[in-house]
User: Fold these one by one.
Assistant:
Number 1:
Amino acid sequence: MNVSEFRRRGKEMVDYVADYLEGIEGCPIYPNVEPGYLQPLIPTEAPQEPEACEDIINDIEKIIMPGVTHWHSPYFFAYFPMASSYPSMLADMLCGAVGCIGFSWGSASEATLVALLAARTKVTRRLQAASPELSQAAIMEKLVAYFSDQAHSSVERAGLIGGVQMKAIPSDGKFAMRASALQEALEQDKAAGLIPFFVVATLGTTSCCSFDNLLEVGPICKKEDMWLHIDAAYAGSAFICPEFRHLLNGVEFADSFNFNPHKWLLVNFDCSAMWVKKRTDLTGAFKLDPIYLKHSHQDSGLITDYRHWQIPLGRRFRSLKLWFVFRMYGVKGLQAHIRKHVQLAQKFESLVRQDSRFEICAEVTLGLVCFRLKGSNQLNEALLQRINNAKKIHLVPCNLQDKFVLRFAICSRMVESAHVQFAWEHIRELGEDVLRAEKE
Amino acid sequence: MNVSEFRRRGKEMVDYVADYLEGIEGCPIYPNVEPGYLQPLIPTEAPQEPEACEDIINDIEKIIMPGVTHWHSPYFFAYFPMASSYPSMLADMLCGAVGCIGFSWGSASEATLVALLAARTKVTRRLQAASPELSQAAIMEKLVAYFSDQAHSSVERAGLIGGVQMKAIPSDGKFAMRASALQEALEQDKAAGLIPFFVVATLGTTSCCSFDNLLEVGPICKKEDMWLHIDAAYAGSAFICPEFRHLLNGVEFADSFNFNPHKWLLVNFDCSAMWVKKRTDLTGAFKLDPIYLKHSHQDSGLITDYRHWQIPLGRRFRSLKLWFVFRMYGVKGLQAHIRKHVQLAQKFESLVRQDSRFEICAEVTLGLVCFRLKGSNQLNEALLQRINNAKKIHLVPCNLQDKFVLRFAICSRMVESAHVQFAWEHIRELGEDVLRAEKE
């Protein structure tokens, strides 16, 4: 969908929304369908080719609306009000477009926490089943979780929140968590009477998009009965391309997996997708059923109560965004988006390699290039400062084994080869200034 | 803003969004303003009278956009991509309009958890400062938190997640938590060697909109050095009306306070507003600063890093919704909305009182009426079943001291006196059917 079609469709959507709310009094307040009605009405897979916008708009009426409880109907007197107003909707349209976010790579952090809490509950119950005299606190005191020293800070934060020890496993020369280092920490901790229970492996780390070795780490988790959570927040989107699937090898060992379609799959923030191998591990961890939340289907097995899967009870109707994007891009359109970003990263990498004053600091697998001027950290800090003060492009740094490194991430849906070319020439010029300044 | 103005403004916003994204390449990628630039440009209070939409749209350019980092610019190479696409934006427009949510009264539950975690950290550090030999687990094992037996289930859930004991305090005849009952539990637990550290008081409970007695509970929390969190998820919006302010008396004792503008203040889901008396209590609890999240202002005191205030790192630009709503309704417009809902609840209450076969089960303070047929729980369960099977209106029940009670909550922005009248006549008819069926 190009901008001119968006202008047209957006205005049609405004009218659709206005018509809907004008006519809501006439809507049956409560759906006349049974849970599960939707499944036969939608395909099991996203379309390969993009679909026409009309078809989707028509399906809203045919497929989606029959399943909706009309919370804004004047005949809705349940629960409490769910606020809605035209100004707020206007603001949300702008919010989606600006898409500037309070600090985040989105709620992969929430997924990690939920997985940790589920694992904490699971191991506690297992140990208490064996020795009922053990208190939860006595067990928690001994619990220990592991993550690569390259993992996102939200992983360590999950440990702080969950009240359990977390240990960083030193990554190897390619910034990956390997069996040997994990095994070593494990043996030490078991010898010290601790209880290893949780491992977070990252596919596509934030610093340099490195990949922990699932085929090595997975079997250890299985053998030691540790929960394996995979954080693929950024890289996960790339796995829709067959050529990147091999990076997923070992996923079969995972108890839970998360990636953020709102990063790289063209779905506006926020949208984080989590899978769990055994849902009862998750729902069992903190399930409560007050009468005002009970409903006739909760034991029917026909529906999934996602409120038991997450920290907040609330969620927006976010699947709608995925549904629109899958259909209007098709798998092929989404694959093309991923591949274009990877190619632009490779272009930037080759530009850097052509300049002997610069070095590439980590393997370029997807859309991130880690590079620096050969020389001191101070030199590279000065370069980054000049880049961000000039305000023509925006970069952030990372630390790779005590080296201060610049991250060049392909981000925008609109980024083209020319922008990457411009960025490189700009960086090289500022690099020359920095080197000159150093000599003086 | 009426529906016809929304049609016009919505289409203008579509064009604004399209123009913005078409022209984004020309935007300075990075704002040329300093933190704090915004404060002098906006009033310290919401306007009393509604403002014109033009003024707000103009202020977007004048006030908001200069402070925006353009994440979708093709010159943005920082962090990772933040996905954005036209289809996704279309879907979000519909999502906002439908406003049907995965199960929730929104993330008041998150606020409660964050407060509990902060309190847990605070008490742990205090005790470890006094006796450094104490382990976190040894302390956590003894921690106990309190909430009214009328509190929302998310409160107890926060305890499960935070790994601490929670105790329900029996509420009084008006379903309020009082000093005597809290004091009693407190003495028992202290005698048993437990460490009371956290109390959740609710203003406007989910079941019957009762109010815990802050003026009694507050001083106890102060005396015992317990964190007091106030959950005003629903009722909080009403405090913009002076006539309801007295319900807040005692708020001065609170360490943290939360309400959900997305419930009753015309701001689309999700939008939950939390205050904390001492921000370092919150940020100190789980603050981590990896290099890729560092920025030049983080120690300047000029900005507030909300990523330290919440579980997910991510947040949408939700203040925009509040800003639009405050300006386009004005305080008076918002007050009128609250007052209209309260009046409609009073109308329904008086209709129920006129029928001697029914009874009112709790004081009607705001927009919720708890009522039932005089008689058995089975009778009222049958009534509710008929109501929800007829699907003309939608209600949910609650339990009030072992009585099965029907909740009639004024919800829709569009609900008028006629809808309430219709609902009552419908309920009364079905009530007659149920009574007749019982006699047969």
Number 2:
Amino acid sequence: MKILLVNPNRTQAVTDAVLAAGWTAARPGTSLVAVTGRSGPLVIGSRAENAIAQREVLELAAAHGADADAIVLGVSLDTALWACRELFTVPVIGMTEAGLLMAATVGTRIGVLTLGRAMVPLYEELAAAYGMAARVAAVDAVDIMPAQALAQPHAVREALCAAIARMRERRGVDVVLLAGAALASMAADAQAASPVPVLDGVACAVALAQARVDLRLPPSTLGADAPLSGRDVTGVSPALAARFKDSSRSSS
Amino acid sequence: MKILLVNPNRTQAVTDAVLAAGWTAARPGTSLVAVTGRSGPLVIGSRAENAIAQREVLELAAAHGADADAIVLGVSLDTALWACRELFTVPVIGMTEAGLLMAATVGTRIGVLTLGRAMVPLYEELAAAYGMAARVAAVDAVDIMPAQALAQPHAVREALCAAIARMRERRGVDVVLLAGAALASMAADAQAASPVPVLDGVACAVALAQARVDLRLPPSTLGADAPLSGRDVTGVSPALAARFKDSSRSSS
Amino acid sequence: MKILLVNPNRTQAVTDAVLAAGWTAARPGTSLVAVTGRSGPLVIGSRAENAIAQREVLELAAAHGADADAIVLGVSLDTALWACRELFTVPVIGMTEAGLLMAATVGTRIGVLTLGRAMVPLYEELAAAYGMAARVAAVDAVDIMPAQALAQPHAVREALCAAIARMRERRGVDVVLLAGAALASMAADAQAASPVPVLDGVACAVALAQARVDLRLPPSTLGADAPLSGRDVTGVSPALAARFKDSSRSSS
Amino acid sequence: MKILLVNPNRTQAVTDAVLAAGWTAARPGTSLVAVTGRSGPLVIGSRAENAIAQREVLELAAAHGADADAIVLGVSLDTALWACRELFTVPVIGMTEAGLLMAATVGTRIGVLTLGRAMVPLYEELAAAYGMAARVAAVDAVDIMPAQALAQPHAVREALCAAIARMRERRGVDVVLLAGAALASMAADAQAASPVPVLDGVACAVALAQARVDLRLPPSTLGADAPLSGRDVTGVSPALAARFKDSSRSSS
Amino acid sequence: MKILLVNPNRTQAVTDAVLAAGWTAARPGTSLVAVTGRSGPLVIGSRAENAIAQREVLELAAAHGADADAIVLGVSLDTALWACRELFTVPVIGMTEAGLLMAATVGTRIGVLTLGRAMVPLYEELAAAYGMAARVAAVDAVDIMPAQALAQPHAVREALCAAIARMRERRGVDVVLLAGAALASMAADAQAASPVPVLDGVACAVALAQARVDLRLPPSTLGADAPLSGRDVTGVSPALAARFKDSSRSSS
Amino acid sequence: MKILLVNPNRTQAVTDAVLAAGWTAARPGTSLVAVTGRSGPLVIGSRAENAIAQREVLELAAAHGADADAIVLGVSLDTALWACRELFTVPVIGMTEAGLLMAATVGTRIGVLTLGRAMVPLYEELAAAYGMAARVAAVDAVDIMPAQALAQPHAVREALCAAIARMRERRGVDVVLLAGAALASMAADAQAASPVPVLDGVACAVALAQARVDLRLPPSTLGADAPLSGRDVTGVSPALAARFKDSSRSSS
């Protein structure tokens, strides 16, 4: 099967990390294609940049998702996740959503670890929006910026391990999810020194997307992921506008 | 003071209704200016259209908000509310946020009434995101579409009154908030036949925006409404890009 | 418009502070009148004193509220708030209620700061009773008693600033509400050294009361703020007994 | 042991019903004394009357509780419960609190049944304040007023049974608590036709008060039920003022 | 890979249905083995039977799980799920847990549908225990007993479809999970007439187990799924006793 | 009356401690009988051991409970509590359930203190399952194992007092419940140095069981504690099998 990984940020290095992380969970016969934002934020680091990125997620999915069997959001705030589910009939999985759901099968107390203190409340709000707040025992951050993380991956490792130990000691977390596309593919490094499993959201999302394809669910005709029709939206690409007109008729 | 009302939908009639509703709460000396989306959805009726509209909210605010003393979101999903708070140092108030907060001073059990059953879960999720779920005793809808509501306002009145009576009888609501920009300025009609107060979100937002200006709070330097700086965002207008570079230096 | 500020405590200095704080948010044309408890607790510092003060709130409002356009409770536990709403048809606003609602428009994570550790659980319970617990990230206290706070206001400032920094560092609060009538009018002092906005509950309540008047809501005929009639209550003043007999017929 | 039952309402018939209900759970050697409000509401039927009754609860307990081994609040809103716990070192138990706690040992889904629809939200708020909301599956009411209930007890029975059946059918309640002092001693009647246990709050409170005495807990020196000292409260009886001065030195 | 399906009930027909449902999600190369309880309840229909079945789940897993790559609990109360996670280092997935997690990627409002009204609260409690209560909009039941369901599968279909329509209409569910091992493999039938996706818990569990294997997580050394060692348990099989002595050394 | 205390662990010393604690709350005329597990875990210290112990709880109760007026679970995870309620028509009370309910009448913020950090999440989950999470302000542990606690009771005292002081200081707990059968009868020791009441779960359970007997509630015919009938369960004792066949006909 083909899975499209969507990174709405403009940073190719993040896309590369997301793709590398995705391959760690791809089964034989799965092909992964990753695309990068052409405009919008360099890296999402605020609510405002996340707002801007929403349209780019939909545009990238519309431009590249026509023949995909599933779409994975390679952006750790799962930007426009439910919007995608209205516009695409194939499974759409968010990397942090998938990480939280997978983590829920590993431990009762989940720790979420991200880059930059300012992002902590955004992940707390995201977990709450998923109705998973009761399972998230801690959200913590290492004070390293994405760019720095990409430049000095090994320097990040120590900070991650220290934060994991802190969450384990203070909050008794049973499993840790790395939240931040820039952290993609760093789980193995962090795992080496961690007493609890460390999950990579992209890997979880690819694994979960494959599982969703295994289930062969029919499309909804009503409800939160039901296709749209007759919506008149301008200022977007013809491919995206066509999905608003009738997302069920689209080839994917 | 000057308050900018932002309607990211492309429907001028909604903007007109929003502006009319706003005037009902404007105090002497307050001037209201309302702007309409230039591209994006005709009327937001899905998560995907709400995702698309986020950027337009920021663009309209950046284009027209420079000299505003406060910004009111005239879109009932409060699209991009927290994003605006990062980009603007003046008070930014969402119409549904304001309606829920004002309603909380009227009754312990709030009812929210909107257009179209499909929107019900979106308002439930919005109330939960505001941490107000415990106060919202019911979210109900009249099965009338925004366009129809604008065309036949009096036809809507009966449906609203029936729904209000239903929420009162079944869920014991003490106060009702009309949620839906297309319902703006219909509160008075609905009130005439309602045993409990009926609130208009735009009027509440204008009143609350004036109150926020009365408080003369200093800008944050940290936290959820702290100004952004140094964010590199492309594909947006120069005015909006400048706010991402340094929202505290902007004139408003 | 005329707003009555009710302080059921017997301490005139608290009333003076409440009135001074109220003026900071009064708009031109608003007159404020503040009244002080004649019997009951010197300063409310326990659940038992709060129980005793409930009747005095109602008596003061009945004695002085006849021509008020709104009533503000200048007592930080919002003593008898919903009771007043049954007995008065004008808007009644509690200072801590208003502070929490206004703070919700500033930040996603609210910090509440009061005087005396023993009061912390009472404010946590009050926030929960308002359905706002999800928004309150921290309730903390400075170990200074009200009398001391009034006597040495400047000595209080350092303690407040240290506590604000602590709540910011440990709990990531975006905005701080000073809860405690004895702290009224100390917000400006605390603000000077705070990275996040510091709200005064009385100022918020006056601003919100003015906003409620701007909305010109009709009285309820059912529900939590519906007028009472035919209630037979003895041992209270004739004015208050009359309100229990028919609160809708009362002049205010 | 001696247990004081406090009914702050002015209706002797309610006190008689409370006392009768209490005796059904009194063990050999337990004596019950019930007292009635001398001023305040005839029967609490609103938030405002409940506010007024708070002081009378404290006055009655101060006047008659000196030699009691425990105090039971024979008022179904548990008026001034935590206030009493600060002023008295003996166990103080509320009738609805006790009913909810006992019901929690009978079924996972508790139904609360009261008199008058207007009271439903007050009991929902009370259950939430006790942190028991997750256990209360339904709060329902029979539209009969307390006076009528006392006058025509048998007429009430059918209404209660119909409501119990409705709560069982629609909400799957496993156990029902009758909330309303005027319903005291009607549990046996209602039980006769109920498939699930029907609890009387006063009986539960007497049983729980006896259990608390069995435990012989020492008084707190800190926390929610720690004695008060040095509180200066005027406008109350000397006995009550003395408790505010030092509740630990009082004979009970 | 090999996945062991554990049905602790003594009914072979349920095991057959569970196995058939599992195959619908098995990917090429996955082998499924299903085992049936040798003693305990015929079909779990009460809390007491669920308590008895806990040990049989562990015994069956210990007896047959040695060479399994993952274990799926084919019992809809996910009996002994976390206990298994302590005793086995391979992924262990519960059928209802998996159904809820997969459903969370399909819709925001999940409906759970089971057999027999008496089971409704057990599933509500299970969803709450998983921290998923906020996502479960309705738990409903068809009043058909497992034995009857197995005997007349087609008769069940109509009842299921009616219940799905009811949950859709009244609670706005976006996706439905069939909860009840006896319903395994009936999802396709129900799906045919459903406007929203209908999930089979066993299929979801097999798909999720395969996904967990794809992730190749290391075993925990601390936390909720960390292996046990040195626990002295008698009255169980040597294989199970050995796992209590040291579950990390066991071959699976 | 006769109360049966059930300790499913195989450690007689725990049973002795449970019985000693029980006597501290037994009233004149109450006889206590305590029984010990014959097989299963030595001491429950994991979820897996708790799963194994469930059947032993039911077997012990069936073997010894025939003439009991109430059953108390002398195991601090309240193992199989609701299962027992289906199988026995007399009151069944769990020691931690009782401790939490009694503590709720003492303070608003309950602290739970157990043995071994690994048990902390289990008690948090238990409190949540009882719907009491909002009342539990802290769950903490002393890092002493049950065997050690039994061997060196006085050594445990210091650790308990330090932990109580820590919970008081950091979380403001008003009352502390000792959770852990091995801690039974240590409450008095811990109380001597504690500023807040320290509760023993077994004593609370005996007191509450006596209170439940005082209430003389009729058996349920529907709901969570309704008797079972016609359940076919094998691999259990004839006495227990008979209860599954018809628990209402059983002598107790």
